[in-house]
Specification:
single chain, 145 residues, four-stranded mixed beta sheet, 6 helices, 15% strand, globular, binds calcium ion
Length: 145
Protein backbone atom coordinates (compact mmCIF):
# COMPACT_ATOMS: atom_id res chain seq x y z
CA UNK A 1 0.00 0.00 0.00
CA UNK A 2 1.30 3.39 -0.91
CA UNK A 3 1.77 5.88 1.91
CA UNK A 4 1.51 8.68 -0.58
CA UNK A 5 -1.98 7.60 -1.61
CA UNK A 6 -3.06 7.26 2.02
CA UNK A 7 -1.66 10.59 3.15
CA UNK A 8 -4.71 12.59 2.10
CA UNK A 9 -8.24 11.60 1.15
CA UNK A 10 -9.64 12.64 -2.22
CA UNK A 11 -11.80 15.19 -0.42
CA UNK A 12 -8.79 16.64 1.41
CA UNK A 13 -6.86 16.87 -1.84
CA UNK A 14 -9.73 18.82 -3.33
CA UNK A 15 -9.65 21.23 -0.38
CA UNK A 16 -5.95 21.80 -0.94
CA UNK A 17 -6.47 22.54 -4.63
CA UNK A 18 -9.22 24.98 -3.64
CA UNK A 19 -6.84 26.69 -1.20
CA UNK A 20 -4.27 27.10 -3.98
CA UNK A 21 -6.91 28.57 -6.24
CA UNK A 22 -8.04 30.88 -3.44
CA UNK A 23 -4.48 32.03 -2.74
CA UNK A 24 -3.73 32.59 -6.42
CA UNK A 25 -6.84 34.70 -6.81
CA UNK A 26 -4.97 37.53 -5.08
CA UNK A 27 -1.53 37.16 -6.54
CA UNK A 28 0.34 36.50 -9.76
CA UNK A 29 2.49 34.07 -7.76
CA UNK A 30 2.08 30.33 -8.18
CA UNK A 31 1.87 27.68 -5.49
CA UNK A 32 2.27 23.92 -5.91
CA UNK A 33 2.20 20.94 -3.57
CA UNK A 34 4.23 17.80 -4.23
CA UNK A 35 3.98 14.59 -2.22
CA UNK A 36 6.21 11.51 -2.30
CA UNK A 37 7.08 8.74 0.11
CA UNK A 38 10.78 9.38 0.77
CA UNK A 39 14.07 10.42 -0.74
CA UNK A 40 17.70 9.35 -0.42
CA UNK A 41 19.08 12.86 -0.78
CA UNK A 42 18.59 15.84 1.54
CA UNK A 43 15.01 17.07 1.58
CA UNK A 44 16.10 20.55 0.66
CA UNK A 45 18.03 19.30 -2.37
CA UNK A 46 15.15 17.06 -3.35
CA UNK A 47 12.71 19.99 -3.12
CA UNK A 48 14.89 21.92 -5.58
CA UNK A 49 14.98 18.88 -7.86
CA UNK A 50 11.19 18.60 -7.76
CA UNK A 51 10.88 22.34 -8.34
CA UNK A 52 12.90 21.88 -11.52
CA UNK A 53 11.06 18.71 -12.52
CA UNK A 54 7.73 20.54 -12.28
CA UNK A 55 9.19 23.37 -14.37
CA UNK A 56 8.39 25.81 -11.61
CA UNK A 57 11.12 28.17 -12.81
CA UNK A 58 8.91 28.85 -15.80
CA UNK A 59 7.02 31.79 -14.37
CA UNK A 60 7.27 35.25 -15.80
CA UNK A 61 8.06 36.86 -12.45
CA UNK A 62 9.98 33.93 -10.95
CA UNK A 63 7.54 33.82 -8.09
CA UNK A 64 6.51 30.20 -7.62
CA UNK A 65 6.50 28.43 -4.25
CA UNK A 66 6.68 24.66 -3.77
CA UNK A 67 5.51 22.84 -0.66
CA UNK A 68 7.34 19.51 -0.85
CA UNK A 69 6.38 16.68 1.50
CA UNK A 70 8.17 13.34 2.03
CA UNK A 71 5.49 11.37 3.84
CA UNK A 72 7.52 8.42 5.17
CA UNK A 73 10.40 10.65 6.20
CA UNK A 74 8.07 12.99 8.12
CA UNK A 75 9.76 15.92 6.42
CA UNK A 76 8.65 18.86 4.36
CA UNK A 77 10.32 21.81 2.67
CA UNK A 78 8.95 25.10 1.40
CA UNK A 79 10.96 26.37 -1.52
CA UNK A 80 10.43 29.69 -3.28
CA UNK A 81 11.88 30.97 -6.53
CA UNK A 82 14.45 33.78 -6.55
CA UNK A 83 12.16 36.79 -6.90
CA UNK A 84 10.34 35.76 -3.73
CA UNK A 85 13.47 35.00 -1.76
CA UNK A 86 14.79 38.44 -2.55
CA UNK A 87 11.74 40.17 -1.20
CA UNK A 88 10.17 38.35 1.76
CA UNK A 89 11.15 39.12 5.36
CA UNK A 90 13.93 36.91 6.74
CA UNK A 91 11.65 35.08 9.12
CA UNK A 92 8.98 34.39 6.54
CA UNK A 93 9.97 30.85 5.59
CA UNK A 94 10.49 29.81 9.21
CA UNK A 95 7.19 31.35 10.28
CA UNK A 96 5.38 29.49 7.51
CA UNK A 97 7.20 26.29 8.32
CA UNK A 98 6.16 26.59 11.96
CA UNK A 99 2.51 26.99 11.05
CA UNK A 100 2.57 23.84 8.95
CA UNK A 101 4.59 21.92 11.52
CA UNK A 102 2.16 22.71 14.33
CA UNK A 103 -0.66 21.10 12.37
CA UNK A 104 1.47 18.18 11.20
CA UNK A 105 2.40 17.40 14.81
CA UNK A 106 -1.29 17.01 15.56
CA UNK A 107 -1.70 14.77 12.53
CA UNK A 108 -3.73 17.44 10.77
CA UNK A 109 -1.90 17.20 7.47
CA UNK A 110 -4.54 18.65 5.19
CA UNK A 111 -5.09 21.64 7.46
CA UNK A 112 -1.36 22.25 7.79
CA UNK A 113 -0.94 22.34 4.03
CA UNK A 114 -3.98 24.59 3.59
CA UNK A 115 -2.79 27.04 6.25
CA UNK A 116 0.68 27.06 4.70
CA UNK A 117 -0.76 27.80 1.27
CA UNK A 118 -2.90 30.64 2.60
CA UNK A 119 0.05 32.12 4.50
CA UNK A 120 2.23 32.00 1.40
CA UNK A 121 -0.62 33.44 -0.65
CA UNK A 122 -0.96 36.41 1.70
CA UNK A 123 2.74 37.16 1.49
CA UNK A 124 2.78 36.79 -2.30
CA UNK A 125 -0.16 39.14 -2.55
CA UNK A 126 1.87 41.90 -0.88
CA UNK A 127 4.73 41.67 -3.35
CA UNK A 128 3.09 40.25 -6.46
CA UNK A 129 -0.51 41.47 -6.57
CA UNK A 130 -2.97 39.86 -8.93
CA UNK A 131 -3.47 41.69 -12.22
CA UNK A 132 -6.22 41.37 -14.82
CA UNK A 133 -3.88 39.78 -17.33
CA UNK A 134 -2.77 37.11 -14.88
CA UNK A 135 -2.54 33.57 -16.16
CA UNK A 136 -2.47 30.37 -14.18
CA UNK A 137 1.08 29.47 -15.13
CA UNK A 138 1.37 26.29 -13.08
CA UNK A 139 -1.20 23.60 -12.41
CA UNK A 140 -3.01 23.77 -9.08
CA UNK A 141 -3.27 19.99 -8.84
CA UNK A 142 -1.19 18.12 -6.26
CA UNK A 143 1.63 16.23 -7.92
CA UNK A 144 3.06 12.94 -6.68
CA UNK A 145 5.99 10.65 -7.30
CA1 LIG B 1 -0.63 33.31 -11.94
CA1 LIG C 1 -1.52 27.85 -10.32
Amino acid sequence: MSQVEDFLTAKQEKEIVLAIREAERNTSGEIRVHIESSTQISHYKRAIEVFRMLKMYNTLQRNAVLIYIAVNDHKFVIYGDKAINKIVPNNFWDATKNIIQDYFKKGEFKQGIVEGILKVGKELKTHFPWTVDDIDELSNEISKT
